[in-house]
Amino acid sequence: MDLDTLLSFSWHAMVPEFIILGTATLLSLLDLFLPRSFHRKWLGWLGVGSIVAALIFLLTLIGDTPFAILYDTFRLDSFAIAFKLVLLVAAGFVLLLAISYEPKEELTEFRGEFFYLFLVALLGAMIMSSSADLITLFVGLELMTLSSYILVGIRKKHLPSNESAMKYVINGGIATAITLFGMSYLYGIAGTTNILEMAGRLQELTNTQHLFLLALAFLMILAGLAFKIAAAPFHMWTPDVYEGAPIPVTAFLSIISKAAGFILIIRMFITVFYHIPDVSNNSSLLMALQNFLAVLAAVTMIWGNLVALRQTKIKRMLAYSSIAHAGYLLVAVTAFSAFMVETIWFYLTAYLFMTIAVFSLLQLMNIEELKQLSGLSKRAPLLAVALALTMLGLAGIPGTSGFIGKLNIFLGALSTEPTHYLLAVILIATTVISYIYYFKLIIYAFFREANHTFQMSGKKLNSIIISICVMMTVLLGVFPQLAYDFLHQNFLSFYDFLQ
């Protein structure tokens, strides 16, 4: 590639990524050369500033005609912009949690590493959002995944953190290998790594043996990505990793990593597998294999909610709750309704605020066990109310954004042909089951006598985070049209996704 060709690309499409990359590089150098006496929290504020700058510039890209650069490997369309907004907002809140995070053991020595590793992981997720090629897609996936392994074990003197990091690395390596193996079949049959070109070539396939190999590729990629989104039975790592990792890292895995997984699923499945004919040539391969997605969604919803009932540690309970929410989102993917992408975008946005609120509450109060919430309404009534509203949102009670998100998924499952009645019933049934463990937190906070005292840390910053997230949970529940109007006015129902 000569210099003229390099300069001819519309590099402004990658300015948000360049901002994050430049800041991550700067923070790594500052962390290396600054004296040990310099408090690394200030590096976190630089990271927050870079996320705000990337978010502002991304907003200026809304409305641009979709285009691709670097020989169609990096694509800027409405889908990429919309989901990058979710990723950047979530990243900003997670970094604020990290700034106020104060574990029992000293973390000053490694705090600088957290900030630039987190930005690298965010960069990987953003690249995945715009990837139009298997190579860039896999590079983004590995940027996020490899950084995540280190972040989980960042508390190097904390044995549970070390154990969870080891489990995450082993399981993650296997999942990555399976995903890459599935992608290799796609490349081998299509003869290209460009996703849109691949879809065009595979659309014309008639060789039955090739179609069986593509079905195998679908199942391999689905299995690998099911690990990333913590779907059962590929969820084995989730409870231990959520419990052992620092709270900001757990929040990152629960929101950004899960969102990136669904971004990848949508990019791959809609662009490629939906356009591949099945053996009978009467439908697409994705529709022919829809039952596999349905089973995965059903098992994930049932297992996540049932096992959460037995948990006494709050982070493990939230881990199984996260598994259940992955199942709800898989229902939307399985149904494949006309408004699937809008439904997933809204649900991830709502889930972002609810999850950040609950992890910020846990961090503020420095608690781990369910019984430690006893008497919270008397000791800190405002925190008890915030906890109650957050739990109501996660449970999907009317008046919260969680209810709107689940309602949209339910309607999507009933609006397609064939209608997914069984998945809709399981979604309702498991949601009702989830009331038991979500309301258990409320019962302890309001109807149990206090038997524990806690020392709040990072009180001011955490309180601001909690206030914003709880307000958004209620606001999007009462006025969901605010989010949908923004989506439809600026992204036109993602009309340019396949252009």
From TrEMBL:
<protein>
    <recommendedName>
        <fullName>NADH-quinone oxidoreductase subunit N</fullName>
        <ecNumber>7.1.1.-</ecNumber>
    </recommendedName>
</protein>
<keyword id="KW-0812">Transmembrane</keyword>
<feature type="transmembrane region" description="Helical">
    <location>
        <begin position="81"/>
        <end position="101"/>
    </location>
</feature>
<feature type="transmembrane region" description="Helical">
    <location>
        <begin position="464"/>
        <end position="484"/>
    </location>
</feature>
<feature type="transmembrane region" description="Helical">
    <location>
        <begin position="113"/>
        <end position="129"/>
    </location>
</feature>
<feature type="transmembrane region" description="Helical">
    <location>
        <begin position="166"/>
        <end position="190"/>
    </location>
</feature>
<feature type="transmembrane region" description="Helical">
    <location>
        <begin position="382"/>
        <end position="401"/>
    </location>
</feature>
<feature type="transmembrane region" description="Helical">
    <location>
        <begin position="344"/>
        <end position="362"/>
    </location>
</feature>
<dbReference type="Pfam" id="PF00361">
    <property type="entry name" value="Proton_antipo_M"/>
</dbReference>
<feature type="transmembrane region" description="Helical">
    <location>
        <begin position="318"/>
        <end position="338"/>
    </location>
</feature>
<feature type="domain" description="NADH:quinone oxidoreductase/Mrp antiporter transmembrane">
    <location>
        <begin position="131"/>
        <end position="432"/>
    </location>
</feature>
<dbReference type="GO" id="GO:0008137">
    <property type="term" value="F:NADH dehydrogenase (ubiquinone) activity"/>
</dbReference>
<keyword id="KW-0472">Membrane</keyword>
<comment type="subunit">
    <text>NDH-1 is composed of 14 different subunits. Subunits NuoA, H, J, K, L, M, N constitute the membrane sector of the complex.</text>
</comment>
<feature type="transmembrane region" description="Helical">
    <location>
        <begin position="421"/>
        <end position="443"/>
    </location>
</feature>
<keyword id="KW-1278">Translocase</keyword>
<keyword id="KW-0874">Quinone</keyword>
<comment type="similarity">
    <text>Belongs to the complex I subunit 2 family.</text>
</comment>
<dbReference type="GO" id="GO:0005886">
    <property type="term" value="C:plasma membrane"/>
</dbReference>
<dbReference type="GO" id="GO:0048038">
    <property type="term" value="F:quinone binding"/>
</dbReference>
<feature type="transmembrane region" description="Helical">
    <location>
        <begin position="288"/>
        <end position="306"/>
    </location>
</feature>
<dbReference type="GO" id="GO:0050136">
    <property type="term" value="F:NADH dehydrogenase (quinone) (non-electrogenic) activity"/>
</dbReference>
<feature type="transmembrane region" description="Helical">
    <location>
        <begin position="42"/>
        <end position="61"/>
    </location>
</feature>
<keyword id="KW-1133">Transmembrane helix</keyword>
<feature type="transmembrane region" description="Helical">
    <location>
        <begin position="210"/>
        <end position="230"/>
    </location>
</feature>
<keyword id="KW-1003">Cell membrane</keyword>
<keyword id="KW-0520">NAD</keyword>
<dbReference type="InterPro" id="IPR010096">
    <property type="entry name" value="NADH-Q_OxRdtase_suN/2"/>
</dbReference>
<dbReference type="GO" id="GO:0042773">
    <property type="term" value="P:ATP synthesis coupled electron transport"/>
</dbReference>
<feature type="transmembrane region" description="Helical">
    <location>
        <begin position="251"/>
        <end position="276"/>
    </location>
</feature>
<feature type="transmembrane region" description="Helical">
    <location>
        <begin position="6"/>
        <end position="30"/>
    </location>
</feature>
<keyword id="KW-0813">Transport</keyword>
<feature type="transmembrane region" description="Helical">
    <location>
        <begin position="135"/>
        <end position="154"/>
    </location>
</feature>
<comment type="function">
    <text>NDH-1 shuttles electrons from NADH, via FMN and iron-sulfur (Fe-S) centers, to quinones in the respiratory chain. The immediate electron acceptor for the enzyme in this species is believed to be a menaquinone. Couples the redox reaction to proton translocation (for every two electrons transferred, four hydrogen ions are translocated across the cytoplasmic membrane), and thus conserves the redox energy in a proton gradient.</text>
</comment>
<dbReference type="InterPro" id="IPR001750">
    <property type="entry name" value="ND/Mrp_TM"/>
</dbReference>
